[in-house]
Every structure is written in structure tokens, then in C-alpha cells.
Design brief:
This protein folds into 2 domains: 91 residues, FAD/NAD(P)-binding domain (3-Layer(bba) Sandwich), CATH 3.50.50; 55 residues, no CATH class. Helices cover 21% and strands 16% of the residues. A 3-stranded antiparallel β-sheet has the order 1-2-3, covered by helices on one side. The chain has a two-stranded antiparallel sheet with strand order 4-5. It is elongated and about 60 Å long. It binds flavin-adenine dinucleotide (FAD). The site of flavin-adenine dinucleotide has 12 residues, from loops.
């Protein structure tokens, strides 16, 4: 991040920290800038531009998933308010499992898991749809007992926040 900041500052870009964009400046001929607010001073800012790139990420801020607090969907809202049509939004509806004690939704490590019900019985159907149905009513327990010792070491190294 520091390298990116230095690089773009060297190129003459002015960075507005803690200053969310709130609205695109748009009229019948297109978008010509944006306005927002500096959260520290309370002052509004306005930038006029020949073109505007929205790069405000996705929309997942209520998911409680790791790293998603900043994904407010602001860019989508601003675009729609400026007259844009959104397409393909139905394809962005992906859910991952998370452990009870963490907000980490990376699911690769379950590849090496045996899944159990609360009473200790093994859950045979391990596809996401079947597991999701159970999770709607009961917790699922996972034991990462299919991993070799090498993989176990790699797991903790690659994804420490999973454990
Ligand atoms: C936990 C986690 C792990 C991931 N791991 C990987 C991985 O290993 N490999 C991989 O390829 N991808 C990974 N991803 C996905 C990757 O992080 C995203 O696809 C990528 O960051 C999206 O980039 P982006 O620039 O579109 O948006 P973001 O990186 O989300 O950036 C959007 C920025 O816009 C800012 N913003 C929001 N609203 C406003 C506003 N109104 N005004 C101004 N700024 C605003 C936000 O604060 C944020 O800084 C991971 C994502 C998560 C959540």
C-alpha cells in the first residue's frame, strides 16, 4: 500500500484520505466529476474531471466477513443515482462458510475436513448446498483430519486466521 501511495503521488495524484465520495456530478451529457466530504474536517470536496473511474469495491459490508467493512456498495449507488443500469448483479451473490469463532470465509481448508453433526455422526453429503441446508438449523463441526502433516503445517502458515 505504501509503495502504491508513493508511486501515484510521484505521478502527481492527489490522495484524499478519509474522504468518501458521496455523489457523481452528472447531467444529460455525462459524468464530469464527484463530490464528497472530508470526515476529519467536515468540509466538502469537489473534483471536476473529464472522466471518472468508480473503484469503490463490492457490496458486503453487513456480512461481517473479514475485510468487508469497506465494501459499502457506494459506487453502485452513485452510479445508479447518476442514471446507470446495473447488470449481472445476480451473479455476485456468493456465500462462504465461516467458523463460529472467526469472520474468515475462506473455505479451501475444508477440502481436508470431515464434517460432523452435533451428535458426532458424520455428514456424508459434503457439497455446499447440502451443508448450507443443515447450517440453517444446526451447527456443523469440522475436523481437518484428512490433511497430511505437511499440509497441516502449510495450512497454519497460509491461513493463520482460520485457526
Ligand atoms: C478476506 C479477503 C481475502 C481476499 N483474498 C484474495 C486473494 O488472496 N487473492 C485475490 O486475488 N483476491 C482476494 N480477495 C479479493 C480482492 O481483495 C478484491 O477482489 C479486490 O480487493 C477488489 O479490488 P477493488 O479495487 O475493486 O476494490 P477494493 O480493494 O475493495 O477497494 C475499494 C476501495 O474503495 C473505498 N471506498 C468505498 N466507498 C468509497 C467512497 N464512497 N468513496 C471513496 N472510497 C470508497 C474502500 O474504502 C476501498 O479502499 C480477497 C478479499 C477478501 C475480503
Amino acid at each position: 500500500m505504501r509503495l502504491m501511495r508513493r508511486t501515484i503521488q510521484k505521478a502527481g495524484v492527489k490522495i484524499f484520505d478519509r474522504s468518501p465520495a458521496l455523489e457523481l456530478l452528472a447531467d444529460f451529457s455525462g459524468v464530469g466529476g464527484a463530490i464528497g466530504v472530508n470526515l476529519d474536517t467536515g468540509e466538502d470536496w469537489i473534483v471536476k474531471a473529464k472522466s471518472v473511474v468508480i473503484a469503490t469495491g463490492g457490496c458486503a459490508f453487513l456480512s461481517n466477513a473479514l475485510g468487508c467493512n469497506v465494501l459499502t456498495g457506494d459506487g453502485y449507488l452513485m452510479a445508479v443515482e447518476a442514471g446507470a443500469d446495473l447488470s449481472g448483479m445476480e451473479f455476485s451473490n456468493a456465500y462462504g462458510f465461516s467458523t463460529d469463532f472467526s469472520s474468515c470465509t475462506k473455505n479451501l481448508l475444508y477440502h481436508w475436513a470431515t464434517f460432523y453433526n452435533e451428535d458426532g455422526s458424520i455428514i456424508e453429503k459434503r457439497d455446499k448446498r447440502s451443508l448450507s441446508k443443515i447450517l440453517q438449523v444446526n451447527p456443523i463441526y469440522a475436523k481437518l483430519d484428512k490433511a497430511t502433516e505437511d499440509i497441516k503445517v502449510a495450512m497454519r502458515y497460509a491461513q493463520p486466521n482460520f485457526f
